[in-house]
Specification:
The protein is mostly beta strands and about 325 residues long. The protein contains 3 helices and 27 strands.
């Protein structure tokens, strides 16, 4: 992979809440995110941190992670505690769409996309570890992530893929023929075919990424898929993943009890519908850590983080 370009930070916007894990942009350049205390926030005026406005749209009562804007002034929310939610952005009303799958409680719901036929596809990162112990799944390499589908009008999700390594972000191809799924624990993107002769099959889309992909976002069908890298590759971790199950499980028990501090190296990628890398941007010794999401808004790149108390606004690279 070519040497990365510089991810140039411009400003930091304090949003009054910890852990804006996912960021998405609306058509007016405003950014929506969810924070640790359950609030769904909208941030306007990103180009001037001193006058940026933060508005509370709703409270889920859980822990919102991945977001997906819908066309009818509504928002899909993957809540790590409550399941798949729908939020009315005008009234702030929160409705649970699905909270169980295959007779078990739906936990660690991570990211979602909606198709033009109103079906919803979403991921579950881990069936073994809760959000607050996410590092245990990364270390143990459990392969318990899932891709699910909720048909229009249904309350019962269908399991499409199992065995994913910490399934995370989701994005649609331009023609809705396939989904791209981020597997954080495997440092890869996986393609799941929705139509055509390969419908229902999965295959590698982009492998051996320079970091661990988290949330992914696409603003328009003709734009790239932006991929956040929550951390760089860790060679000892790659080696551990090839060890016996008992060894990985023992290491995970230690990891969930040890204090964690993210690395100062952050990065994002942009990929096209063939899996080719359009942009690779990175920044070393960053004061803003653990980038778990990225979107384009108001002519800039906006970063979110499970770790930080605000969002970072960066320079957007020239189109290629």
């Amino acid at each position: 992979m070519d040497r990365p370009g510089e991810l140039i930070p411009l400003q930091y916007v304090d949003i009054g809440g910890r852990g804006p894990e996912d960021v998405v942009a609306d058509s007016r350049g405003r950014v929506l995110t969810g924070v640790e205390d359950g609030r769904i926030l909208r941030i306007d005026g990103l180009t001037d941190p001193a006058s940026a406005r933060v508005e509370v749209l709703a409270e889920t009562g859980g822990r919102p992670l991945g977001l997906e804007l819908l066309t009818d002034d509504a928002l899909l929310v993957c809540d790590a505690e409550l399941g798949l939610l729908r939020v009315d952005l005008r009234e702030g009303i929160v409705r649970i769409l699905a909270d169980a799958v295959a007779g078990q409680r739906l936990s660690f719901c991570s990211n979602a996309v909606a198709l033009s036929d109103n079906s919803v596809y979403f991921t579950v990162s881990s069936r073994r570890y809760p959000l607050e112990q996410w590092i245990g799944d990364i270390v143990e390499h459990t392969g318990t992530g899932r891709l699910l589908r909720l048909a229009p009008g249904s309350e019962t999700p269908e399991i499409l893929l199992e065995g994913l390594q910490f399934a995370n972000g989701l994005a649609l191809s331009a023609d809705e023929s396939f989904l791209v799924v981020a597997e954080t624990g495997a440092c890869r993107l996986t393609r799941y075919w929705l139509g055509g002769p390969h419908a229902g099959r999965s295959e590698p889309f982009a492998e051996h990424l320079p970091g661990m992909p988290d949330n992914i976002w696409r603003g328009a069908p003709d734009g790239p898929i932006w991929v956040s890298l929550a951390g760089p590759r860790v060679p000892p971790l790659d080696l551990l993943h090839r060890a016996a199950t008992a060894v990985r499980a023992a290491a995970a028990r230690i990891a969930v009890r040890a204090p964690y501090r993210p690395t100062g190296t952050i990065g994002v990628l942009a990929v096209d519908d063939s899996g080719g890398i359009v942009h690779h941007l990175a920044h070393r010794r960053s004061g803003y850590r653990m980038v778990t999401s990225v979107c384009e808004a108001a002519g800039h790149l906006v970063l979110g983080s499970l770790w930080e108390r605000g969002i970072a606004v960066c320079e957007r690279p020239a189109p290629k």
